[in-house]
Amino acid sequence: MRQDGGRDVLGLADQVVDLVRRLAGPRAEAEVVVTRADLALTRFANSFVHQNVAESGVSVRLRVHAEGRTAAGGGSVVTPDGLAALVERALAAARLCPPDPAWPGLTPRSPVPAAPAWDEATAFAEPGERAERVRAFVDAVGGLEAAGYCRTGYRAAAFANSTGHSAQGVAAEAAMDGIARTGGADGVARLHVDRLADLDGAALGARAAAKARAAVDPVELPPGRYEVVLEPAAVADLLHNFALWGFNGKRHTERQSFAEPGVAQFDPAVTLVDDPLAGSGLPFDVEGTGRRALTLVDAGTTVAVAHDRRSGAAAGVGSTGHASPDAATFGPMPVNLRLSGPAPAGDAGAPAHAPAAGGHGAQHAAGAGHGDGAQHGSPAPAGPLVDDSTADLVAGMERGLLVSDLWYTRVLDTKSLVITGLTRNGVWLVEGGVPVRAVQNFRFTESYPRALGPGAVLGIGRRAVRQPDRVDGVWWDAPALRLAAWNFTGGASG
Q1: Among 303, 321, 328, which Cα is nearest to 250's?
Q2: CA-to-CA distance for 217 and 133, rounded, in angstroms?
């Protein structure tokens, strides 16, 4: 498998298409995605590894359209008998389904971008290699209690359909998410990378520890609207909810989304791009449509939403390459969002995957934006400002709050994307550009689009920190954000 780059899964996909033709006749339409995945997770708590789990398997997803009816199914038994049984189940289900007049048809033969380079050492990392990162994290917290995980993943996927279209790709990734705790205060550090070798457990541990130590003995502040700097971990929650509820083609066609293409809904400093090929993403979706960078917001103006073939047909446009197994229920959505500001003058030829600086008063871009700003061997950070990109935004704040992380966020209104949730892992009062004291956690209620609306973005960090999602193959390139106001409605227990 390490040498063939996934050619065996392409052979399985072709077999299933041939089975559909034989069992249902040449008029039946079929599309198949076969995925070989090797996923591994090393978890730690109380400052030691307590679990190492790994799974390796092949999954087959089949969708058939026969006699005007559509059904989908999946399985993991890839013997000849197992594949035949999957096809028979899908065809039997199709006969019981209602007619599907909105069937958009199969993806025709079309070019698919080449898959990004993938790192074999990451794909097939041993438990000891992940444990080394955990040990470095634990050592770096300097006696504080540490918990979290280090994970590696590999996917080889192939697509085939009965129009003769096919595609294949391979991806690998690694991520670490850890906290340090002291005196009831937590600090967090997260990072998603394409190569395990780029995951510096010591740098992440030092950051988490610095933030935990700076968060002890918090004071209580009254609720209200405060100017804020949201760190990358908090900004990742904004991107996740923008993707799920806003730039989702199904929700948009059902008028449940805030997105209005052609309207300046965001501050001119904001550009949002979904770009799976800027990292460890597969170059096609589950319908075989090639995936490319898709600009959703250009200098504040919403210009597009994500579509699969069905939602794209309903909207009168084509697929943007965002079909997923769950799209029929949840809708097609971006899964690799990058937030950035306008490119510096003279930088029009910069690679599309390199986040640029932006925001009012922001500095010029620095780096490709996939790291956390720390180099191996960097001095241990002190205080809550653990990277210079965030520090630059805080320095311009006369009075406000520095927020590390958001969690337990829930949507109150999908159309305006009003969300309630809690802060965690550290909040600090900033006065005169300096964090002066830790603050107790808040509950907030805020419209995410409004918080980034015209005139509301005071700065965008010049460096994005790639944040891992809970789902394999999903990440958010999130810089720090300085916003004019954020609505805090009470204490965390309120």
Answers
A1: 328
A2: 30
From residue 108, alpha-carbon distances to 111, 165, 166, 294 in Å are 10, 6, 9, 20
**Measured between alpha carbons, how far is 178 from 359 in angstroms, rounded to an integer?**
29
Name residue, tokens 């052609």.
Answer: 262
Per-residue model confidence as pLDDT tens digits over 182-195: 988 999 999 999 99
The parts of the chain modelled with pLDDT lower than 70 are 1-7, 342-382, 493-494
CA distance 22 to 96: 20
Long-range pairs for 407-416 at CB < 8 Å and ≥24 separation? Answer: 407/237, 409/237, 409/241, 411/241, 411/245, 412/445, 414/245, 414/251, 414/256, 414/257, 415/255, 415/256, 415/257, 415/258, 416/258, 416/447, 416/449, 416/450
Chain Cα centroid distance, residue 318 = 23
29-59 tens-digit pLDDT: 999 999 999 999 999 999 999 999 999 999 9
Cβ-Cβ contacts under 8 Å for 304 (sequence gap 6 or more): 247, 261, 294, 295, 296, 320
> pTM to 2 decimals?
0.90
